[in-house]
Amino acid sequence: MSVLIFEKHSRNDASWLPKLKEPEEDILKKLPKEFLRKKEAGLPSVSELDVVRHFTNLSQKNFCVDGNFYPLGSCTMKYNPKCLDSIASATSFAQIHPYENEEHVQGALRVLYEMQAALSEIMGMDEFTLQPAAGAHGEFCGLLITSAYHRFKKQKKTKVLIPDSAHGTNPASAALCGYEVVQVKTNARGLVDVEDLKTKLDGNVACLMMTNPNTLGLFEKDILEISKLVHAAGGLLYYDGANMNALLGICRPGDMGFDIVHLNLHKTFAVPHGGGGPGSGPVGVKKELISFLPKPRVLKQDAWYTLEKTAPHSIGKLRSFYGNFGAILRSYGYIKALGRDGLAAVSEHAILNANYLKARLKKIFDVPYDGFCMHEFVMSARNQKKKGVKALDIAKRLLDFGVYAPTIYFPLIVEEALMVEPTETESKETLDEFVRILLEINKEIDQNPQKVLDAPHTTPVSRIDEVQAARNPNLRYKGI
Amino acid sequence: MQYISNTEKDKLEMLQTIGAPSFESLLSDIPKALRNFKLNIPEGISELELDRQLDELAHLNKNFKYHMSFLGGGNYDHFVPAVIDRLALRGEFITAYTPYQGEASQGSLQSMYEFQSLICELTAMDASNASMYDGASSLAEAALLAVRFAERKKILLPATVHPEYREVVKTYLSFLEAEIIDIPMKDGAMDFDAFRKALDENTAAVIVQQPNFFGVLEEARKITDLAHQKGALLIACVNPISLGVIEPPGEYGADIAVGEGQPLGNSVAFGGPHFGFFTVKEPLLRKIPGRISGMTVDRHGRRAFVLTLQAREQHIRREKATSNICTNQALCALKGAIYLSLLGKQGIRKVGLLNLRNAHEASDRLLKIKGVSAFSQKPFFNEFAVIINKDKAKLKESFKKYGFLGPLSMENFYPEISSGYLVAVTEKRTESDIEVLAKAIEEA
Question: Which end of chain A is less crowded, N or C, counting CB atoms within 10 A of the terminal residue's CB?
Answer without folding.
Answer: C
